[in-house]
Protein 1
Amino acid sequence: MSFSTFNLNPALLRAVGDKGFEHPTPIQRLAIPPLLEGRDILAAAVTGSGKTAAFLLPILQALLSEPRGKTRALILVPTRELAMQIADHLKDLARHTSIRGAAVYGGVSPAPQLQAFRRKVDLIIATPGRLLDHLRNQAVRFQDIRYLVLDEADRMLDMGFIDDVRRIVSKTPVSRQTLFFSATMSADIRRLAADMLKNP
Ligand code: AMP
């Protein structure tokens, strides 16, 4: 199977080729088609499985077919390292498009993050704590979010971010598409997923 079977935008297919990806990984094969149809998904996927491209490619495909000028995708992650890693992956996969993202995390000056909100970057990749600070300060609003990713949800739960995550998610429109990734599937994770996903 090749990536061309997904009917992706040529700019995305080119970027996939630039990265040297020849065949989709199992999580990409399983997740990309329902995501392109607009469905929610609940995925058990570990780091190294190719999960990042599994959610970035369908989101990029959707963003490319819609009007620009609004922040339409939010990716929640447990750590700054993961946020930076996803931002890099995004830069690679979006390199032949004008789609832009910003990583938002704690321990650094908020100024460039505020600028990214004002510029209405297409995607925000954020850790819950710093994002909630911005939300409290009314520096960011989520009324235009159409795509919400929870990446490494089990780690966010283990790190005590559960209330922050619930608070952030409650500020996004219910009409969103939600993509839920976790390495493990405990009862707590299933409960959280059940509250956030529609017919995954
Ligand atoms: P991830 O699980 O998303 O952190 O990805 C792990 C690594 O696999 C990253 O270095 C990706 O660039 C790489 N990767 C993702 N998808 C593919 C693919 N279809 N073929 C080869 N490598 C891939």
Protein 2
Amino acid sequence: MKINENYKTLETSYLFSQIRTRREAYEAAHPDQKVLSLGIGDVTLPLAKPVVDAFARAVEEMGQASTFRGYGPEQGYDFLREKIQAYYQRFGVELPLDAIFVSDGAKSDIGNLLDLFDTDNTVLIPDPVYPVYRDTNQMAGRSILYMAACLENQFLPMPDPGQRADIIYLCSPNNPTGAVYSREQLQKWVDYAREQDAVILFDAAYESFVQDPSLPHSIYEIPGAKECAIEVCSLSKTAGFTGTRCGYTVVPSELVRGGLSLQAMWLRRQTTKFNGVSYPVQRAAAAVFTPEGMEACRQAVRQYQSNALLMHQALESMGIWHTGGTNSPYLWMRCPEGKSSWEFFQFLLEQAQVVGTPGSGFGQNGEGFFRLTAFGTPEDTAEAMERIRKALG
Ligand code: PLP
């Protein structure tokens, strides 16, 4: 038998385990000190009340013969897809229901979408990057080209017309850098993808953090995007669904490659390999999009946004170069005094008892940078920034 040898090429992900090990070693040696974390990429606030109520009602329904539900539609119940459709209308984007596929989260879809593409395609991925884009392609043995996200381009790489590409990953607002593409920049990507006959996989997991009305929430706000882009989105950060699991992917009918409709292919793929998201989770997700649900979820996002603003202002006042923080829960800062990412990690841990994420863990171009997240409590966030200020003197 032959196994998938491509797994041998994957790097073992040491990043978060190494962070944990270093933090635990420090805490064991200094039991009297309280370490604060600005490192986690997970939400901390609970599900909103209207969401929990809908979730509980649906669980009750499952326990009654008259309201019990078995297998649901693989692409999601219409009651949820209609809500998602209406949500997109707020950005001026019209989507037929057939284009919307409900999933158990963005990560699964990001990996599963690759079923639609031959392994012979060339993939364009930013560096630094959410590691899932890289690893899922490496597992399939695709050749990957990296585009440098760096100071010179404000961590927003743009297309190089001389570069061939078939599958292009864009994430905006970005994890880890918090950088957000403008409409004009996304238009250049859409034009490039159409010229190349490429497909953009657009990760909008952090769209609900966009506050600036001039910035796009969805790639479909850009003319021509329906002919070249698939959009993956998630309720994880919008509504605290990291543990509840629900997201959605949009595959427009206009997207045709090699004579085949990618929407028809994705439907075929999902109906073959996926049996849908559980009914109570879809009811909970639908409650996110009701007026009360939206308001309650927005309140949580506002708390994270206000943490991010405080962090942004603190870094600004310290004169530290950074991106993100205004339309994103992530801040990406340059390590002071030319320190490497891990040197700065250790410095902050020892001098400020604050934990963040070394940028080098997200790719070569992350070296010398550091990611802070706004998902903590307002009190811890304020104290952590004050400690950083003191440590940097
Ligand atoms: N995309 C990006 C850029 C992320 O940072 C994350 C989670 O951290 C995901 C997707 C995964 O989202 P989900 O929880 O919906 O699987």
